Amino acid sequence: MLVLLRGRTVPVAVPALRLLSTQQTSSPFANLDIRPAKRPDTAAYFTRKPKFYDLLSAISNLSRQHPLPRYNEANYKRGKWIPRAELQTKLDIKISPREHELLIRRLGDVSNLRIADPAERETVTLYLNQFRRGYVHAETVTKDENGETKVVAPKVGKKKNNGRRGFLDHLGRWHAFGRRKEATAFAWVVPVEAPETDPEVAETEEVPRLSDDLELDPELPPPVEAVKIVDNVPAHAHFPLGDVIVNGKPLAEYFFHGTDRDSVLFPFQVANKVGQYNVFLRVSGGGRTGQAEACQLAVARALYMSDRKAHVPVREAGLLRTDGRAVERKKTGKPKARKSYTWVKR
């Protein structure tokens, strides 16, 4: 812009916006692409874990869509859901134990819903199956009687034998394993069969009447007589006690300390089943005390799985949990667990 100053023309700088406002009618930013970016795909876009919270929101919506009363949770057995490590791999995100527990609780709530519509119930079941343990996603397309194509829902994969919980092997033995410190034990538990009753021994005997051998006073009342006694027990009735074999040796030969032997047999004492099972143990590693406690855990797991309802005291006694302690704790007033300071007189 030129300005006349003292008879001379001098150029003067003027702000660009002022010139544009006087010379142009349109905004200088009209040609600039300053529109907002694309809207987020989900409402959880700005959270730390969008995939996890989208999944949690979808499961919660299922609960709100079906407000019918739920099953009685006291009589309903909850399903087994996908473990945390597998879920992290599936979603490709890191999930904390607390978040996994929250998700499992929501899945359990949805599985307890009573859905009236059969089609909707099947849809919800298919959705929940992908979060069940051992599920394999492989849909099968078949044709029904009318020649129409239909998709068959995949079944939940069969559980593998878990030695940590105990299982029944192909020979009819209850098998489980246990660990303690550096020791590992494998146990096979077999119920002792009661001896069969010999029909020739079990006979009905009649007790002779007292009035036949004795002369009774007619003034006294007649004696009370035993009519019959049925003896169904064999003459030499006995039930064999179960044997406990550890690494091919009897229990008393392998564990020479009484406390170790009591530790191995403690699950039978809790369940009140002492001598009613044959036990075969294979143990390795660690010391004798660690091996005895590893055998105790393996025996308790196998015994509990043989009859869960009858062996509830075994679970309540805490015999099914692994003791993770590896070293003895330090004692107050001592430098180590058992070491003591040297006594000095002065």
From TrEMBL:
Q: List, alphabetically, the InterPro entries matched.
A: Ribosomal_Su5_D2-typ_SF (IPR020568), Ribosomal_uS9 (IPR000754), Ribosomal_uS9_CS (IPR020574), Ribsml_uS5_D2-typ_fold_subgr (IPR014721)
Q: Name one GO biological process term.
A: translation
> Mind telling me what this protein is named?
37S ribosomal protein S9, mitochondrial
Task: Report any Pfam family annotated for this entry.
Answer: Ribosomal_S9
Keywords attached to this Swiss-Prot or TrEMBL record, sorted alphabetically, are:
Ribonucleoprotein, Ribosomal protein
- First and last residue of the signal peptide: none
| Top-rank lineage group of the source organism | Eukaryota
What is the originating organism of this protein? Coemansia pectinata
The family assignment reads: Belongs to the universal ribosomal protein uS9 family.
GO MF, one annotated term: RNA binding
Naming one, the record's GO cellular component terms include: mitochondrial small ribosomal subunit
